[in-house]
Amino acid sequence: MIDLIYKIGHFLLITVFATALGLLFMGIARKIIARIQKRYGPPVYQPYLDVLKLFGKDAITHGFIFDFGAVMALGGVIATLFFIPLGSWQLYSMEGTVLLVIYLLAVASLGMAMGTVGSGNPQASIGISRALTQMLGYELPFLVILFSLIFRYQTSSIWGLMQAQAGSFLNWNLFAYPMMALVAFVVLIGMMGKKPFDAMIAPSEIGSGPVVESGGKYLGMLLLQKSITIIIELALYVNLFLGGADNIFSFSFKMLIVWILATMFGSLFPRFRIEDGVKFFWKWPLGIAILQALYIII
Amino acid sequence: MLTKYIFVPAAAAFAAYILNKKNKKAGATITALVSAYLLLSLALIYGSWELNQSFNLSLMGYQLEFLMALTPLSWLFAVLTSAISLLIAVFSIDSQADFKFSSVFNLNFLLVIGSIMGVLFARDFLTLFIFWELMTWTSFYLISSGKKKMAGRAAYRYLILSAAAAYSFLMAVIFIFQQTGSFAFEPAAEFLLNNSAPQSILLLLAISLPFWVKAGIFPLHVWVKDAHGNAPKEFSPFLSGMLLKVGFYGLIVVFHQLSFFKIIENTIAYRGLPLLSYLFALLGAVTIITGTILAIRQEDMKKLIAYSSISQMGYIIIGIAIATPLGFSGSMLHLMNHLIFKSTIFLALAAVIYRTGTTKMYEVGGLIFRMPLTFAAYLTAIIALAGIPPTNGFISKWVIYQALIEKGYLFLALAAFFGSIASFMYVFKPLSTVFLGQLKPQHQEIKEVPLLMKIPMLILIGVIVLFGVFPGIQMNIISQISGDLGIETVNYSLYSIQGAFGAWNSLYIFNVFAAGFVIALLVFGLAKKSKLVGLLDTYSSGEYVTDAESYHYAYQYYRPFDRLFDNLAAKSLTGFYETLTANLLKSGESFRRIFAAGRVQNYALYSVLLFVILAAVGWII
Amino acid sequence: MNNNFVKGSWQEILDWAQNKSINMLHYCTGCGAIELPPTMTSRYDMSRFGIGPAATPRQADLLLVTGYLSTKTLRRLIYTYEQMQAPKFVVGFGSCTINGGMYWDSYNTIKQLDKYLPVEMYIAGCMPRPEAILDGLLKLKKMINNGEADGYQRYQDNLEFYHQNQEAVLGEVQRTQ
């Protein structure tokens, strides 16, 4: 019983921590983008206020699938979160996690896609069709990278891959396989839907695509989902390429560095058309990833 | 006794045919009862692997021996066949009115079941060939009985390919018979092992050709789309779920029991895999990619799922070809899981077609509000197909990935990853366009399907989740099969599987999922209640929407993606085969013009020439 | 602690959050829209007050009517307003929304926005400079924080009145609710 309560408490603690950190990161990103554009920018705590406001607002729903989609989106990312080591802090460790995480993230995407298409708005469908196409673009190089990492270190657990880079910082995959880290960074930008790859949420073109019908608590839940997703993706990158960390503070710091870099890169580029984005991913990141993988397996 | 599995369905087939003339529902009911009986009696003989039977027949001086035996592999396939036909038969009881000739459908369906049983228990080439042909012909009639105009043509393509492959099979078998004097598998395997390797390989390739055709692997996949798309909607689940898999049964028999893998063991290898096996796996990879890209382009829901079947067959052949313990187990798992989720998908679509009467995805929409259970079945099945945990589809894909990464087969893994990620795209298309989106005005009055159609879907949903949590149930029989075939078994328990780089534990996943969803539900439930509005009340840039039909995004859903492959898709393999046929006809025509132009003098000349040549040959010998 | 107190203070917190975070839907009806880009970009940057753009009415709190409104656009404006989620606010922008401005005698523009939709406040000028816009929005924030911006409640309470006025100019009005 005590064990169960401890576990539930742990669940909640991790969820709250990741949400809070993710929202903070989003605030930081808005500030950074503002500064790049020579603006003052909103306060760093702005996303917290947004979430609070959204949960206080009225909302409309388009039927049960709309509700179910929002729950599935948030539930999916929370479930994924429990498999990611944050520093030395991990709830569930399983040896096959790294492939699992990719597919668990898909649960959230599917939930969001289903809910939003369930609203009957064609703009949402267009956004989802773009998002799924782009996903095929960036997941392919990323999975090839995972292939080479798993083959190189003979383990498919995130924890194991992190441990394999222990010792000096020169063991980090960032320095051991810099090309791979670069590809993963581009993939990360694509995963987070940042600027060159944000055709699926194009606000002025298709009314922000997948979230076009979400208002009030639905948008709030999707905002929470977004913040946790950011943490998952950053944590994955830090664990795989920056050697993880011993404690949650240095881990958060590493995540912050990656996030700031990704934000800066993201605010520099105009938008790719969707097929050009896919073409780009299959040309450069995938090509480099395959070369790197060939180098590792031979 | 094993013969009863063949003769009970065969006898019932004719009973069903006669009774169905009296009562429209009798045929399907008999099919269901027979399948249930087969399932039950198969369950009773589980484990008695020494069961066998033989007949002797003396024909024109040849002593022919018909051998039948039960192996774990054939037991598994037989159980899958009878289980899926039971569900389909129950499903089809209420939809008999949709058939042109419903008695013929039931007759043929039972005959297909019986002949598949014959194929599975056969231990010699002759029995195998007889039942294989019977299966091909009866399924040909089933496919051509579809209501669509194209059904006949599609079935014809299927028949031509199968027949051509069957001749190659027959020739190789007769060659072996000449050498060994027996049709049985064991002497043949022995002969092939001791024969010169190139000849044995050639013979075995010829023998395996019908199985490649049936499994729908890359250059021979052209029949699958049209056959699936045009077959009666009740038969499509069986076609995709079971009939394709019988091809894999044959391939496993050729590879392991006829010792194909032993013969090529010492040939040139790439990363420890004989080049020929690698070639097979590469064919699988190409199958995955072609099937996937073409599936994304389809506008017809059954054809889309048919292409998805082709691509999923690629995974199975990859696992079988690399033949590591993990690869084989992954393949067998995927084979079973594909049967389960693909028949669920086809049944759900059959329910949609039953109610709406169309297979074009852009002609329907928003059906979730009218057919929620059908939607639930489709959703569960596509989650499994896309390989999203915690369903059974993820486990099998995970095991196959482990097998590929273990050996470092980069390009095979690349194709597998591609097929898996792209499957999100093509399974989401029917979800979005058929079940979600705007409900068409003409479909406002549609109701959920009747109870007898709901039951099979509900059972299949349960099975998907059950095997998603307890893969050990499947691994139990798979380990017996691999033990029987002499492959090392994988470590497993009821809810975990040991991979190459770590274990899979589905209980963990299930717990975590429950926790995540409970938290999300709490967040959702604690917030303010929301107000329900209609589907037409959406953001449309301030414009009023009155016409649901034109407010549904369905046609060419992935146009940007399709644009990348327009050039490739234009050069379809079907076109290649059609050119081949046309050229063949043309050359036949010129051949006819030279040799059979209708001039008696020419014929006289030919016969004289033939006589002279024959005499010369006879004299020389 | 009685229930009303809890409810009241919770509402106060929400009002405070609302005033700090406003997503605005700028309905670019007239020439006033051109004043918004400088207000949003680096010269004046309204995002430092927590005011940002929204893509769709579902996500928006503030409807900014930027300039003259022809009767044809009024129809769309009403539709858009009804799609927004409460609490929602309307701000009239420029003299055209107050009294018709230079279109005071036009046959096809409406003269007084608050006859058709509950306007919280007007920002006068033709056109109002970005400073004026920011000043107006800051006042709106203060109103929201004090719970004085209750246009959506007024709309519900006087539904009859608004509908009558709307139908007087437009004839039949298709509604979402």
Automatic annotation (TrEMBL), chain A:
<keyword id="KW-1133">Transmembrane helix</keyword>
<dbReference type="Pfam" id="PF00146">
    <property type="entry name" value="NADHdh"/>
</dbReference>
<dbReference type="InterPro" id="IPR052561">
    <property type="entry name" value="ComplexI_Subunit1"/>
</dbReference>
<feature type="transmembrane region" description="Helical">
    <location>
        <begin position="136"/>
        <end position="154"/>
    </location>
</feature>
<feature type="transmembrane region" description="Helical">
    <location>
        <begin position="223"/>
        <end position="242"/>
    </location>
</feature>
<feature type="transmembrane region" description="Helical">
    <location>
        <begin position="6"/>
        <end position="29"/>
    </location>
</feature>
<feature type="transmembrane region" description="Helical">
    <location>
        <begin position="248"/>
        <end position="268"/>
    </location>
</feature>
<dbReference type="InterPro" id="IPR001694">
    <property type="entry name" value="NADH_UbQ_OxRdtase_su1/FPO"/>
</dbReference>
<feature type="transmembrane region" description="Helical">
    <location>
        <begin position="280"/>
        <end position="297"/>
    </location>
</feature>
<keyword id="KW-0812">Transmembrane</keyword>
<protein>
    <submittedName>
        <fullName>Membrane bound protein complex subunit mbxM</fullName>
    </submittedName>
</protein>
<feature type="transmembrane region" description="Helical">
    <location>
        <begin position="174"/>
        <end position="193"/>
    </location>
</feature>
<feature type="transmembrane region" description="Helical">
    <location>
        <begin position="64"/>
        <end position="84"/>
    </location>
</feature>
<keyword id="KW-0472">Membrane</keyword>
<dbReference type="GO" id="GO:0005886">
    <property type="term" value="C:plasma membrane"/>
</dbReference>
From TrEMBL, chain B:
<feature type="transmembrane region" description="Helical">
    <location>
        <begin position="335"/>
        <end position="355"/>
    </location>
</feature>
<keyword id="KW-0472">Membrane</keyword>
<keyword id="KW-0560">Oxidoreductase</keyword>
<dbReference type="InterPro" id="IPR052175">
    <property type="entry name" value="ComplexI-like_HydComp"/>
</dbReference>
<feature type="transmembrane region" description="Helical">
    <location>
        <begin position="304"/>
        <end position="323"/>
    </location>
</feature>
<feature type="transmembrane region" description="Helical">
    <location>
        <begin position="408"/>
        <end position="428"/>
    </location>
</feature>
<dbReference type="GO" id="GO:0008137">
    <property type="term" value="F:NADH dehydrogenase (ubiquinone) activity"/>
</dbReference>
<feature type="transmembrane region" description="Helical">
    <location>
        <begin position="508"/>
        <end position="527"/>
    </location>
</feature>
<feature type="transmembrane region" description="Helical">
    <location>
        <begin position="201"/>
        <end position="223"/>
    </location>
</feature>
<feature type="transmembrane region" description="Helical">
    <location>
        <begin position="155"/>
        <end position="177"/>
    </location>
</feature>
<feature type="transmembrane region" description="Helical">
    <location>
        <begin position="103"/>
        <end position="120"/>
    </location>
</feature>
<dbReference type="InterPro" id="IPR003918">
    <property type="entry name" value="NADH_UbQ_OxRdtase"/>
</dbReference>
<feature type="domain" description="NADH:quinone oxidoreductase/Mrp antiporter transmembrane">
    <location>
        <begin position="122"/>
        <end position="420"/>
    </location>
</feature>
<dbReference type="GO" id="GO:0016491">
    <property type="term" value="F:oxidoreductase activity"/>
</dbReference>
<keyword id="KW-1003">Cell membrane</keyword>
UniProtKB/TrEMBL annotation, chain C:
<dbReference type="GO" id="GO:0048038">
    <property type="term" value="F:quinone binding"/>
</dbReference>
<keyword id="KW-0408">Iron</keyword>
<dbReference type="GO" id="GO:0008137">
    <property type="term" value="F:NADH dehydrogenase (ubiquinone) activity"/>
</dbReference>
<dbReference type="GO" id="GO:0015990">
    <property type="term" value="P:electron transport coupled proton transport"/>
</dbReference>
<dbReference type="GO" id="GO:0051539">
    <property type="term" value="F:4 iron, 4 sulfur cluster binding"/>
</dbReference>
<dbReference type="GO" id="GO:0045271">
    <property type="term" value="C:respiratory chain complex I"/>
</dbReference>
<dbReference type="GO" id="GO:0009060">
    <property type="term" value="P:aerobic respiration"/>
</dbReference>
<keyword id="KW-0520">NAD</keyword>
<feature type="domain" description="NADH:ubiquinone oxidoreductase-like 20kDa subunit">
    <location>
        <begin position="28"/>
        <end position="140"/>
    </location>
</feature>
<keyword id="KW-0004">4Fe-4S</keyword>
<dbReference type="InterPro" id="IPR006137">
    <property type="entry name" value="NADH_UbQ_OxRdtase-like_20kDa"/>
</dbReference>
<protein>
    <submittedName>
        <fullName>Membrane bound protein complex subunit mbxJ /NADH dehydrogenase subunit B</fullName>
    </submittedName>
</protein>
<keyword id="KW-0874">Quinone</keyword>
<dbReference type="Pfam" id="PF01058">
    <property type="entry name" value="Oxidored_q6"/>
</dbReference>
<comment type="similarity">
    <text>Belongs to the complex I 20 kDa subunit family.</text>
</comment>
